[in-house]
Amino acid sequence: MRAHVPGGGRHAEARRRRLRPFGLRTRLVLAFLLVAAVGCGTTAALTYRAARNAILEQTQDTAVTAFRQQVETLNTQLPVNPDGLRTALQSIARQGKPRPWRVYAEYGDLRVSSTDRPESSVLTPELRRRATAIGATHGSFQRVVKDGTPYLTIAVPAVFGNYYRGFPEGRPTGLVLYAVMDLGEEEANIEAMVAAARDGALPALLVALIPALVASRGVLRPVRELRLAAHSMGRGRLDTRIHAKGSDELADLARTFNESAAELERSVTELRNAEARARRFASDVSHELRTPLAGMLAVTEVLDEDAGTLDTDTARAVRLISAETGKLAVLVEDLMEISRFDARAAELHTDEVDVADSVRNTLRNRHWTDPEQIVTELTDGVRASLDPRRFDVVVANLVGNALRHGRPPVTVRVYAEDDRLVTEVADRGPGIPQDVLPHVFDRFYKADAARTRSAGSGLGLAITLENVRLHGGTVVAANRPDGGAVFTVRIPL
């Protein structure tokens, strides 16, 4: 798969890979090596076990068979002659297979051996018990480790070769011969095999690293391209597609991504076209309404002047028409302003202004000078780079909103905080309900659905938000602890 994404994304991707040492690539390689290590270890363990058993069983079978044959050919008369028995034991020891043995004989309390020591500490009570059990004629063997050295111990009872004093053939004579053979050579061979397996494991893992890297690259490259493509789409490049190659699951995922991206691009294009048509419609309607509204406003002004000379019902109708025409004119102007914001045609024409004087002019131009209605706390000497017209709209909308929906007095504060200009407008009303706070800047939002009519256009706070954003600032709505709503505007100085 190949994603059609900007080249800068590859450098960012490389940086992210360096910052994540335990990413998916590392985990895949480690998992591959772990499987290889387990495979090598299991194979080595099974091979070691099979070879060890083969070596020990071959040595054991050879020794047991040879020792039993030697005992069967032993010609010893009873009662036992110690000197003759010792000579026979030395002869058997020399003929030991696959290596010489140390041979011991026990007959009652008599102990004779082919060595200087009549008894061996390697022989266990269990082996003696099995060799002297009633009816034991074939003998037994046992592997024993003594002081770290492995030994093979063999016990074979001597039996009568024919009838003796009425005993049938094969009857034990009471004489038991033991052979002890050092298994150090076999153990050394086994240790050499273990060392060879251990020394060969590291090269095997190094060799396994190559297919691990190749496999991880084959898996991660399409995944990485898919992530880059998703990131590119998240940044608005809806024409991003991935080159799907092959018929595996990753290729199917790439095709699914491409289909989803195409459908998303189509839907977004339709939505954008619909939004553009809606903006154009609002702008065209607002523009077309301005000319007749100008004439209507001129007429209503004349009618307002003559309303006092008319009868009561006609005067009331004239004033209603005048008020509603004014509201309609405000709504049309607000719609045109919102349309400019939506079309990104709104521009800032900044100038360095004295903020306190600007706020005073806004309040004075709208006749908001009654101290019982408006309280100002303006820090003189604060200058900021603002668009005077748009800042006037911000202050006027916030104060007008407080007068309509709150209770006087409305407090207007202006001060500098660090590198920002702060403007606060607070009222003494009931405040804003918590479920309404997230929506106060939404267009045409009504806190009370039953209130279909109001003195405002329903766009004032939305226009305020757009003007503040145009200045690179923020505006938030909240409730004061002692009651009332407060709107706080922060704009860089």
Automatic annotation (TrEMBL):
Membrane-spanning parts: none
Keyword Ribonucleoprotein: no
PROSITE patterns in the record: HAMP (PS50885), HIS_KIN (PS50109)
UniProt-listed Enzyme Commission number(s): 2.7.13.3
Residue ranges annotated for the HAMP domain, each copy included: 217-269
Subcellular location: Cell membrane
Pfam family, one: HAMP
InterPro entries: HAMP_dom, HATPase_C_sf, HATPase_dom, His_kinase_dom, HisK_dim/P_dom, HisK_dim/P_sf, Sig_transdc_His_kin-like_C, TCS_sensor_his_kinase
Catalytic activity from the UniProt record: ATP + protein L-histidine = ADP + protein N-phospho-L-histidine
Keywords: Kinase, Membrane, Phosphoprotein, Transferase, Transmembrane, Transmembrane helix, Two-component regulatory system
Class of enzymatic activity (EC top level): transferase
Domain Histidine kinase per the UniProt entry, residue ranges: 284-493
Keyword Phosphoprotein listed: yes
Gene Ontology terms: cellular component: plasma membrane
GO molecular function, one term: phosphorelay sensor kinase activity
Protein name: histidine kinase
Provenance organism: Streptomyces showdoensis
